[in-house]
UniProtKB/TrEMBL annotation:
<protein>
    <submittedName>
        <fullName>Bardet-Biedl syndrome 9</fullName>
    </submittedName>
</protein>
<dbReference type="InterPro" id="IPR028074">
    <property type="entry name" value="PHTB1_GAE_dom"/>
</dbReference>
<feature type="domain" description="PTHB1 N-terminal">
    <location>
        <begin position="1"/>
        <end position="363"/>
    </location>
</feature>
<dbReference type="InterPro" id="IPR026511">
    <property type="entry name" value="PTHB1"/>
</dbReference>
<feature type="domain" description="PTHB1 platform">
    <location>
        <begin position="496"/>
        <end position="603"/>
    </location>
</feature>
<dbReference type="GO" id="GO:0060271">
    <property type="term" value="P:cilium assembly"/>
</dbReference>
<dbReference type="Pfam" id="PF14728">
    <property type="entry name" value="PTHB1_GAE"/>
</dbReference>
<feature type="domain" description="PTHB1 GAE">
    <location>
        <begin position="429"/>
        <end position="465"/>
    </location>
</feature>
<dbReference type="InterPro" id="IPR055364">
    <property type="entry name" value="PTHB1_CtH_dom"/>
</dbReference>
<dbReference type="InterPro" id="IPR028073">
    <property type="entry name" value="PHTB1_N_dom"/>
</dbReference>
<dbReference type="Pfam" id="PF23338">
    <property type="entry name" value="PTHB1_hp"/>
</dbReference>
<feature type="domain" description="PTHB1 C-terminal helix bundle">
    <location>
        <begin position="710"/>
        <end position="786"/>
    </location>
</feature>
<dbReference type="InterPro" id="IPR055362">
    <property type="entry name" value="PTHB1_pf_dom"/>
</dbReference>
<dbReference type="Pfam" id="PF14727">
    <property type="entry name" value="PHTB1_N"/>
</dbReference>
<dbReference type="Pfam" id="PF23339">
    <property type="entry name" value="PTHB1_CtH"/>
</dbReference>
<dbReference type="GO" id="GO:0034464">
    <property type="term" value="C:BBSome"/>
</dbReference>
<feature type="domain" description="PTHB1 hairpin">
    <location>
        <begin position="605"/>
        <end position="708"/>
    </location>
</feature>
Length: 828
């Protein structure tokens, strides 16, 4: 950042909600006053044309009213404005305004006022041309060596150069190999036009060549085609840039040699008018606009350049001479002369900030005030020193004790509102309390997909109350920072079941059923689910229905004679959410009654066939995705080959039959589009299948933990093994990741003999398997060994996280942390 700022001489904000670009600004004596001072002409995409004559403001007057000479609302958007001698019967300056489908030339005149309101200015239309093609930009100059007049060249969006000799349309030419329009400029010395094509090369076309050339393209209109005659259009010279060009400028600084300046995205190029590079300057920033102008040194050029960091840089060729800070990011920059000051820098931003500034420094007359002399109280200084030393010692002791600081200093409370509106929205209040000083607190809210939050990150100024509204959209996280040392506090909480389902009537029969046993007498389901029993259509307390927002229905049936509860549904994976909620609510219900020996259990059998159906469906969609990718690659290669053959035929000087290549290309194109649509549809179904697979896996983990009475540590190991990924990727999928993790458990803690435990997991890259038979075998073997008394453990060598290398430098750890809905507080 520069130490100096551009000194404001005059500034104005144009309109409200208007947009501007680099062609919307020009300066000059547009009213032909003869004073030698410039006026500023600004046009906007809203069609508003404004003319200003800035002057410095006095302390007791307003500048905006008398500085603005004219403001006219034109019916069409303004793309570019230029001043030149555009009228045949006059050598005065006129204003050319380029619209998307029209070129208008105006005369600006001023009438001296006889009253205090000042002079009056008028805008008079001299002539206009209706364009047959949408315009992009224009340039002007004495084309063909004419004197005393300027002609106009307009570049259309489809690559046509349209030439206007003042009131008359001359001719039009299509640029060869055109794809997208680029910047356009005119070189007076060589009478040629400079542009940058879509292949990122500078191209030069002489006016004489354009005038006598014949278009090989049939896009030319019939009324213009008669004016085209001669040879085919070719470039006089070309120069490869290797990057996109933002602007081209050809300053008239020397009659012996013209320099063409091209502003790229990362470099500044200076090219001679014969196509040779004079110099190139690599930029360390992203430029937005530039303006070359004459220098006092012979053989050099000064360049004004603005970047997206609000900086104005002055170069003399490649040497940086000055840097100043601007108040906004300009899209256009000009140099103008005004009364009392010449050489002012005029900048215009995209949102209408027009500023006239100069570079320099203003003297500072600030003098430091005298410090009041007072006696030092050594007792207070000694007490303050001891307190600071104590703070330093405590901070050095607790640098490696993050968890203790989290627990002792900061507390996170989440107050949940269980009232859910029909749009499935949950509003939560998060309270954060801290006993110490907090600096730059940040908070992140994380929820499991498909749930999400309306705002996932918060930056707090104070430790107040934050309202978080949770929606079914995307994932989020919350962090805070305290006491200049990073600190993290986490608060995990469960979202209400009413967020994803609502009460429904109970049905007795369903396709998939599981049974949960308890060691206590059956309870009334209305007491366990009070939020669902109130609005339930069925008054039977032994049956309760849950209607998920996805459309499926889950029923919970309580036995009247035994201690068993049945959960059933037409969808296997949808049982997991209700089953998990039932187990958790049973634990809370009996804990509130003071029962300490309550236990949930599952007697089996484990529903592996139903689980494997979900696995097969997910794997089938993954295989289909790979097939679509291969077919798309083949058709793309075929399509490019046909394009090359057709291009060769079109470039051949001897016309020949196409031999149905155009028909073949059209058929291949349709196949590519059809395959792309099918691949996109398969991708969406794959995302849904992976979500169902995660739910089914959660249900399997829950049943295994109830079946064998697994502890929380063992359940965490099982969850990290069967759910290692949050989402599928083309490089790494669920099947190969789970197969590697299950194989590792079977060779370590669930091995039959101690010899198998010494065998480490292979560290080769994981690829998509040919089928799921091996994965099914390993999962079945895992359940079988757990049923025979095997216990999950990461003791001894298994305590070290085993890392498996994935394609693309991805890693999978068997100690993957469980992902829950939580709030994280980082204190720095």
């Amino acid at each position: 950042m520069s130490l100096f700022k551009a000194r404001d001489w005059w500034a104005s904000v144009l309109g409200e909600g208007e947009e501007f670009d680099q062609g919307c600004l020009c300066v000059g004596d547009v009213d032909n006053s003869g004073s030698g001072y410039d006026k500023i002409v600004v046009g906007s995409f809203m069609g508003m044309l404004r003319i200003f004559s800035p002057h410095p403001a006095k302390p007791d007057e307003q500048t905006e009213a008398d500085a603005q000479l004219l403001e006219v609302q034109l019916p069409d958007p303004i793309i570019q404005v230029e001043m030149g001698k555009f009228v045949s019967c006059s050598e005065l300056l006129h204003l050319a305004v380029l619209h998307p489908r029209k070129l208008s030339v105006y005369a600006v005149s001023g009438t001296a006022g006889n009253v205090e309101h000042g002079d009056q200015y008028q805008l008079r239309l001299v002539y206009e041309h209706n364009l047959q093609r949408t315009a992009c930009n224009m340039t002007y100059g004495p084309f063909g060596g004419v004197t005393g007049h300027h002609f106009i060249c307009i570049q259309s969006m489809d690559g046509m150069l349209m030439f206007f000799e003042q009131e008359t349309y001359a001719f039009g030419r299509f640029l060869p190999g055109f794809l997208l329009p680029g910047p356009l400029s005119y070189c007076i010395r060589t009478d040629s036009f400079i542009t940058v094509s879509s292949i990122r090369q500078v191209e030069c076309y002489r006016y004489e060549t354009l005038a006598v050339a014949t278009d090989a393209d049939t896009r030319q209109d019939s009324d213009q085609q008669s004016k085209s005659s001669g040879k085919r259009l070719t470039a006089d010279w070309t120069l490869v840039l290797g990057e996109e060009a933002l602007d081209i400028c050809v300053p008239n600084t020397s009659s012996a040699m013209s320099s063409i300046f091209v502003l790229g995205e990362r470099n500044l190029f200076c090219v001679k008018d014969n196509g040779q590079i004079r110099f190139m300057k690599k930029l360390e920033f992203n430029p937005c606009c530039f303006l070359p102008y004459g220098s006092v040194s012979e053989g050099s050029t000064n360049i004004l350049m603005c970047n997206h960091n609000n900086m104005l840089l002055v170069y003399q060729d490649v040497t940086l001479k000055w840097v100043a800070q601007l108040s906004c990011v300009p899209v256009a920059v000009r140099v103008a002369n005004f009364p009392e000051l010449k050489g002012l820098v005029v900048t215009l931003s995209s949102d209408g900030h027009l500023q006239c500034s100069y570079m320099g420094t203003d003297p500072s007359f600030f003098t430091a005030p005298k410090v009041d002399a007072r006696e030092v109280n050594y007792d207070e200084v000694d007490t303050e020193m001891k307190m600071l030393q104590k703070v330093i010692r405590e901070a050095s002791k607790t640098q490696g004790m993050v968890h203790r600081v989290q627990t002792n200093k900061s507390t996170v409370y989440v107050n949940r509102c269980d009232t859910v509106c029909p749009e499935c929205v949950l509003y939560s209040q998060v309270k954060i309390k801290n006993r110490g000083a907090v600096h730059s607190p940040k908070m992140t809210v994380c929820v499991q997909p498909p749930l999400g939050v309306t705002q996932d990150q918060f930056v707090l100024d104070s430790m107040g109350m934050i309202l978080v509204s949770i929606l079914l959209s995307q994932t989020s996280t919350h962090k805070h920072e305290v006491s200049r040392i990073p600190r993290v506090s986490q608060c995990k909480f469960n979202l209400p079941l009413r967020l994803v389902c609502y009460p429904s009537s109970a049905i007795k029969n369903a396709k998939y059923k599981i049974t949960v046993d308890t060691n206590k007498p059956p309870v009334n389901l209305s007491e366990v689910f009070p939020d669902f029993s109130e609005k339930s259509e069925n008054n039977d307390s032994s049956a309760l229905g849950f209607q998920l927002i996805t459309g499926s229905r889950v029923i919970v049936l309580a036995s009247k004679t035994s201690q068993r509860y049945r959960i059933q549904s037409e969808s296997f994976e949808d049982i997991w959410l209700v089953a998990k909620e039932l187990v958790q609510r049973f634990d809370r219900h009996f804990a509130s009654l003071g029962v300490k020996d309550f236990r949930n259990s599952f007697t089996g059998p484990i529903p592996l066939p139903e689980f494997f159906e979900t696995v097969d469906h997910h794997f089938e969609l993954r295989v289909n995705a790979q097939k679509y990718q291969d077919l798309l690659s083949e058709r793309a290669v075929q399509f490019r080959a046909i394009q090359r053959r057709l291009l060769t035929r079109f470039k051949d000087k001897t016309p020949g039959p196409l031999q149905n290549l155009d028909t073949l290309m059209e058929g291949t194109y349709r196949q590519v589009i059809a395959l792309a649509d099918a691949a996109e549809d398969n991708r969406e179904r794959l995302i849904q299948a992976f979500t169902r697979l995660r739910s089914a896996t959660h249900l399997l983990i829950l049943l295994l933990s109830l079946w064998q009475g697994l502890s929380s540590e063992q359940t965490a190991i099982l969850e990290a093994t069967l759910l290692p990924l949050l989402q599928d990727t083309p490089q790494l999928g669920w099947e190969e990741s789970v197969d590697a993790a299950v194989s590792h458990l079977l060779k370590t803690c669930l091995s039959r003999s101690p010899k198998d435990q010494a065998i480490s997991l292979s560290t080769g890259p994981l690829t998509i398997p040919k089928d799921t038979s091996r994965l099914k075998k390993h999962i079945t073997l895992l359940c079988d060994r757990l049923g025979k008394g095997g216990r999950l453990s990461l003791s001894s060598e298994a305590n070290v996280p085993t890392t498996v290398m994935m394609p693309g430098q991805k890693y999978l750890s068997l100690e993957t942390l469980r992902v829950h809905s939580h709030v994280t507080l980082m204190l720095l």
